Amino acid sequence: MIQIGDTLPDTTLMEFNEVEGNGCSLGPNPVQVGAACAGKTIALFAVPGAFTPTCSAKHVPGFMEKAAEFKAAGVDELWCLAVNDAFVMGAWARDQKTGGVIRMLADGDAAFAKATGLTLDLHGKGLGLRSNRYSMLVKDGKVVQLNIEGPGKFEVSDAATLLAQAQA
Known about the structure:
This protein has a single domain, classed as Glutaredoxin. The radius of gyration is 14 Å and the shape is globular. Helices cover 30% and strands 30% of the residues. The chain starts with 11 loop residues before the first strand and ends with a helix. Strand 8 and strand 9 (142-148) form a beta hairpin. It has six helices and nine strands. The chain has helices spanning 33-37, 53-65, 67-72, 86-96, 111-116, 159-167; strands at residues 12-17, 27-32, 41-47, 77-82, 102-106, 119-122, 128-131, 134-139, 142-148.
């Protein structure tokens, strides 16, 4: 399992863009993790799935609410990852109104989740292999804070916890 001090796995995530900008075309675009993190501070949080109750009602809204405070604390980008496809993440981004605030990144085949060791087995519940719920602060591709939730919990991966760590 990934630990504080480790470098993020250089996998490819996918992002659905509603509008063209910064060299990105409409539709799904690959995001190479290593290049996307280079020289940046990223507040990353992962959820078991788009449109799921806790993720939609608490996790994403918390980061939206504190986005300006993250920027003031030196965070360059907010990332939300889920084991969903880019079209689902794009639809969820529209639903949550995250455009220009949180990058909604798809880990469609769970490559990132597997590489970090932060998977959640929800077979038998109709969801298959997913990402565990967690948050992390990443500086230049290295993990400097990591908050992993226990099964069914939402206590340490919230925006307030990660923001306090970013401000420290």
